[in-house]
Amino acid sequence: MTAGFALFDTAIGRCGVAWGDRGLVGVQLPEADDARTRARLLQKAPGAQEITPPADVQQACDAMAELLSGEATDLSFITLDMDRIPAFNRSVYDIARTIAPGETLTYGDIATRIGDKLLSRSVGQALGQNPLPIVIPCHRVLAANGKTGGFSANGGVTTKFRMLAIERARIAGHASEDAPMLFDPGLSIAPRRRRG
Questions:
Q1: 76-110, pLDDT tens digit by residue?
Q2: Which residues are registered as beta bridge partners of 4?
């Protein structure tokens, strides 16, 4: 049973998080206003009460905010409660959680890792149902040929593109140093300097 939820500030707006005794059960990307963010979060965590997060949840919120400010923060320490998530979706999410900040995979890459490249569409559907964006980084999964693919959060692919630009993501399938970077022309982020 969900214990609580809270909103927290990030570089892309106020996000929300819901948790229970066994870990996070929902993360919500910013909506047009706090009321809509709360409403969307409560769809993921019915009956949750807005309360001050416990220390481990606050640590998760701080890490997500760091990631969304451009720091290559590892979120793998965050405990998730995925008991109510279908097994196929969990397998997709487990793979997505291995994608490091600044890197990407394609829907086909994940389908192949599951065991059947023909499952690419099902992978996309699972990612569209992701109740824990940011922690399960569905924004790092692209369509073939580096195309952005869909994104179900407020702002759609613009939000996805902004998150990828903040992380200075590279298109999957290219050698790391030669991979084209995904930049949002409307987002002023200085390119990372190469260390020589």
A1: 999 999 999 999 999 999 999 999 998 999 999 99
A2: 19, 49
Give the domain CATH number at 13: 3.30.160.70
Catalytic residue, chosen from 64, 135, 138, 169, is 138
Q: Residue 190: is its pLDDT beyond 50?
A: no
144/100 same-domain check: yes
- Strands 2-10 and 49-50: what pairing? parallel
Residue 61 annotated to the active site: no
pTM score, whole prediction: 0.84
CB distance 8 to 14 below 8 Å: yes
Domain count, the chain: 2
Residues 151 and 110 in one domain: yes
Long-range contacts at 104-107 (CB < 8 A, ≥ 24 apart): 104/140, 104/141, 104/142, 104/164, 104/169, 104/170, 104/171, 104/172, 104/182, 105/140, 105/141, 105/142, 105/172, 106/141, 106/142, 106/143, 106/144, 106/172, 106/173, 107/141, 107/142, 107/143, 107/144, 107/149
